[in-house]
Design brief:
Layout (H helix, E strand, L loop, with lengths): L14 E6 L5 E2 L4 E2 L13 E5 L5 H6 L6 E6 H5 L4 E4 L4 E5 L8 H14 L1 E4 L5
């Protein structure tokens, strides 16, 4: 994927954080991320993630009034799915390449499920 963006592409080994802003995005009994945390909402260009090298999980969570957890993902694992994490600032990126649910529900849910499987919860409010 060739891009002409202002920010350098993230290396395969880079980690990004997804803030889990809804309680139902976490299977608390198993401490797992639920696939709905990775569904692209209407009018979103991509899924918002924070670049871990410039922000701790606690700092990521603190950006939001209500955050129920923070999940980590490795950029290389995102790219394995045919998606990418494109930086749009020094500390933020968008996971791009996901279809909208209204356009292709099966593919959107399958990719969201694969992202959730690759995620690891690295912060919850109980850890503070």
């Amino acid at each position: 994927m060739t891009t002409n963006y202002e920010f350098e592409p993230l290396p395969e080994s880079a980690i990004v954080y997804r803030a889990l802003l809804r309680r139902q995005w976490i299977d608390e009994g198993n401490n797992l991320v639920v696939f709905s945390a990775y569904l692209l909402r209407p009018n979103e260009p991509g899924l918002s993630v924070t670049i871990a090298s410039v922000c701790s999980p606690e700092q990521c969570a603190a950006k939001f009034q209500n955050c129920y957890g923070v999940a980590s993902l490795q950029v290389g694992q995102i790219r394995e799915l045919g998606l990418d994490a494109i930086p749009d600032s020094d500390s933020h990126a968008q996971i791009v390449g996901l279809p909208y649910v209204k356009d292709d529900r099966d593919r959107a849910e399958r990719l969201a499920d694969l992202l959730a499987e690759r995620s690891r919860i690295v912060w919850t409010p109980s850890q503070t």
